[in-house]
Amino acid sequence: MALRDIVGQEKAVAILKSYIKKEATPLHSYLFLGPRGVGKTTCALNFAKLLNCENPSPEYEPCDVCRSCKAIEGGYHPDVQLVSLPLDKRELGIEEIRQVRQSAYTSSAWGRWKVYIIERGETLTREAADALLKILEEPPQHCLFILLAPNIGDVPPTIASRCQILHFPPVRKELIARFLEERYNLGKELAYSLASLSEGRPGYAINIARDEKIRKTREELLNWLANMPINPDYALQAAQEFSRIASRLEGGEERDKIQQCLLFASSFFRDLLLLRLSGKEGLLLNYDEREKLKKIYKNYSLTFLHSALNTLQRTYRLLQPGSNVNQRLALEVMFLDILGGR
Length: 342
Hints:
By secondary structure, the protein is an alpha/beta fold. It contains 15 helices and five strands. It has a five-stranded parallel β-sheet with strand order 2-3-4-1-5, with helices on both faces.
């Protein structure tokens, strides 16, 4: 993917390209701010490509075919590191930043820019933030650090003040839908639905567009929810069936699959609530399923839909990565609350 293909983030891309156009030395530290899935990581990786590309285009785009571009795309470039939150942790600790520091002060393997992209900057522990600050105060030559976080308040002021800040706002769903149609050959209705579900996050929509298994799992889950008995005696069986459907997703941890299905389920009840309140189908997240939703929304009371949606959102928060909450028990309690109307 080229920098020009990053959906809806033209301003940030133009700023980054300006450093190359002016033949200036890029700043050593950047802070990319915005929700997850809006293009921060993609932009950071493509900027790393441009800095290290052997044959950049006259439009200041990486060529995507040289050794360096292919290595970054494949995740094996020796001088470009993506520092992610470990699956078994809720915070980026001192150990992860020490590894960055040790690597940063060694010579580059391929003789160009060393780039460190630190995801989930909002999870840095105090010790890790202090260690990162020491690196940013005296950065090694030809080293560049890109910290990613949702909001400026999520990062210590001492770090933010040493970074060039670029904002990555949510993207209009019309832009996301058009991109999905053109790049992934999706039908208009499905593209519009995925763009709506993404809530301005192209990365979320692209992930579903790429994976037919996710789309089929979504369809199966929505069909099941539409026919689910509203009976507390069904709660334990419902929790098992929900887990079974989620298990059909490929890759990732089991909890990630559950969370994805919780988001789909929340969108289902949100759409039913919207139809009950206004009847405006153009605002539905699951627009491609609107005929099904229009047939059943009157079967549910406003009180039930409000309660179900709140319960789903609460369970989603409880099952965040790194949480010690028992997943099976959380789902059982969730369906007891939803189907029991408590």
